[in-house]
Design brief:
- Helices cover 42% and strands 22% of the residues.
- By secondary structure, it is α/β, with parallel strands linked by helices.
- Mean pLDDT is 86; it is low at 1-35.
- The termini are far apart.
- It is globular, with a radius of gyration of 27 Å.
């Protein structure tokens, strides 16, 4: 009996020892695996701050990038333009995607630290003007929109709606109107691009100002709203002069310059090393990334070519 108890005791001790050894080795293996995945052009982990108004297209490219490079993890964080610029200047972010470059005064922070950024243009975006489908007009004069921003009343435009006071669309439209700040009346801001779409859907007479990417690649849960919203045609005085023509924000009109509200999109990389930020910037500017942008409805910097094989016989 004593021998049997002794046998059971040593058996349990052996099982316990093997278990401890197994899990100890497993932990070390996991640690070694993590150590192997260092940051390179196609591996590692990085956070990329993305302008809210262009987040859908960036999300598409990031998703495909992850599917190709299994050891890469890009954490896309969407913020307003003002928040992103502040994060860069506070050194709490190194890679950002914005619809503009930094200004000379903003760039001075990095110049003083002898950091030369990699600035990569990868697409041209458009700012769309949205109206409730119950509104009779399907077009709008740009000057009427700009007058609202100048604090002047307009009989044809009741109000403008932006996603956020710190949005890049606000900065763009203010610059076009030639003013420094939003007027006290006639202009409203909600909390997100999704809320712009819903607000315009529910409020006739309001014009929503939004990145066109949110219309051509809207999340599925917004489809019911977008189906009942009109994307307005906008006149281009600089191109047409006295002759009134109106243009929608599609790829063709963006490419020809017929649509007047367009802006360049950039990857701003302040990593100062060959890391994952550089890898993503190269990818989005290369043929694969440009093809994703082309399919999205935005205008890529380079139109990807298609090779067609021609056979003499069927």
């Amino acid at each position: 009996m004593k021998g049997k108890i002794k046998y059971i005791f040593f058996s349990l001790l052996l099982v316990l020892t093997v278990s401890v050894t197994f899990y100890s080795c497993k932990d070390k293996t996991d640690e070694n695996r993590e150590a192997v995945i260092k940051e390179t052009l196609t591996s590692g982990e990085i956070t990329i701050l993305t302008d809210n108004t262009i987040s859908p297209i960036v999300e598409d490219v990031v998703t495909v990038f992850h599917s190709v490079y299994k050891n890469a993890h890009i954490n896309q964080v969407n913020k307003t333009e003002k928040e992103i610029v502040q994060a860069l200047l506070n050194d709490s972010a190194r890679v950002a995607i914005l619809p503009r470059k930094l200004t000379p005064s903003e760039e001075k922070y990095f110049t003083n630290r002898k950091i030369t950024p990699r600035v990569t243009e990868f697409a041209t975006d458009a700012i769309a003007l949205l109206a409730n489908s119950k509104t009779n007009d399907t077009v709008v004069n740009l000057e009427d929109v700009l007058n609202i921003l100048r604090g002047k009343p307009s009989g044809k435009v009741k109000s403008l709606v932006f996603d956020n006071p710190g949005s890049s669309t606000v900065e763009y439209m203010l610059e076009m109107a030639g003013v420094d700040k939003l007027p006290e009346s006639g202009v409203y801001s909600v909390k997100s691009n999704e809320e712009i779409i819903k607000y315009v859907h529910d409020n006739a007479g309001a014009i929503g100002i939004i990145g066109v990417d949110w219309i051509v690649q809207a999340p599925s849960h917004l489809t019911q709203y977008i189906d009942e919203i009109t994307v307005l045609g906008v006149d281009n005085v600089k191109m047409d002069g006295a002759e009134k023509k109106y243009y929608k924000p599609n790829q063709s009109n963006i490419a020809t310059g017929a649509y007047p509200l367009t802006r360049k999109l950039y990857v701003l990389n302040y990593q100062s090393k060959q890391g994952l930020g550089m890898g993503f910037e190269i990818y989005i500017r290369a043929r694969e990334g440009q093809r994703i942008i082309l399919k999205s409805g935005l205008l890529p910097v380079e139109i990807p070519t298609r090779e067609i094989s021609v056979r003499k016989e069927l």
